[in-house]
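Annotated sample (chain length 424).
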Amino acid sequence: MNKDLIAIFEYLEREKGIKRDIVIDAIEESLRAAARKSIAGASNVTVKIHPKTGDIDVFCEKEIVNDVEVDGQEISLLDAREIDPDCQIGQFIDVMATPKDFGRIAAQKARQIITQKLRTAERDVIYEEYRHRVNELISGTVKRFVRGANVIVDLGKVEAILPMREYPKTEKYHLGEKVLALLLGVHDTENGGAEVVLSRSHPEFVKQLMIQEVPEIADGTVVIDNIVRDAGYRTKLTVRSTDPKVDPVGACVGMRGIRVKNVVRELLNEKIDIIPFSADPLELLQNALAPIEIRKVSVNEDEHTVSIVVEDDDFAAVIGKKGMNARLNSQLIGYELEVQRMSDYTKTMELQRTELASSDDPSLDQPLNSLEGVNSFIFEHLVAEGFNTARALLMATTEQLAKVPGISLDMADKILEQIRKQRM
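Output written by the structure step:
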């Protein structure tokens, strides 16, 4: 019995999930090449390995002749009939020709080929086991670190890699630590094998965690439409309900926030914003910024840009740390987002109105007959206060206009904006 081979068979079956017959086929093929070199003149060599004992038998096919001229390819009829009494001249017969030192020599010569074949077999096992589990959550244990901060995770039968680019910079791992991650894919390696790639920074990881915690998402009642993420810091996801009786945000948050807290805990306290979905980008943006109110908004479809104005006190929150909040909201609505303080906006508008009022355009001094959005009663009050031309309005401040009966600060701002746009 070849105990070494039996041990290899059992190890590969138990630890790698590779069937014994696949291993035997790989070793037989590799040993066949070594046997041809060990048996001089042999043309057709067969290697057989007994699956239970591990014994190796090498057979050389020889032609039955009366007079042997090429010993490696021919056998006399007398010798052949000791193997098969019914054989005849001209037939071919398999003759056992296992070299005495074949075990040692074959192992040395076949090692590289065996390794390659087993690597291919292991790759097939990995593909079969994990290719249909892409985008599933999978857990393992940190086994070692390679090529810097890439993490090797033991999944049981195989090892997976958690590349440095696929986990947040805020996360640190230790040997033996349990890790839950997304199965991102199964990729071929340069040496002919396969590797399972994991991720904890991909947006899909958050989605799968939410599916795990929220039954309404799992059964399709609540739908996650979009997820944007700055891994380790903040995630924003939009949700909608297919059932009008179910509040999508409330379902995701859970009683006393327990559902979303479980996800936040797994993400090591990464912030999660759950936002009601809207197909209208501007409405979606307002949902994302709530309770902050957008004071002014304009859309430039040519440049695919949304410009908003918010109160000075809200500006920092809208931008976020290092611009993170604005950047994520931009990804969420699919437009480049520009944010301006109300004080800066007001100064810019006042400057533009002053420049217009200082121009030599004679039409600015023509009496106004009406203003869009202003009823006749309020318009008469404006005229009575001396704001009867475009130039007079452009030279006024919102506070001055707001003193006119029936005009609020908001209306005054709209009147000035209307005049400015008409003359720009």
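Annotation: The first helix runs from residue 3 to 16.
Annotation: The chain has 16 helices and 15 strands.
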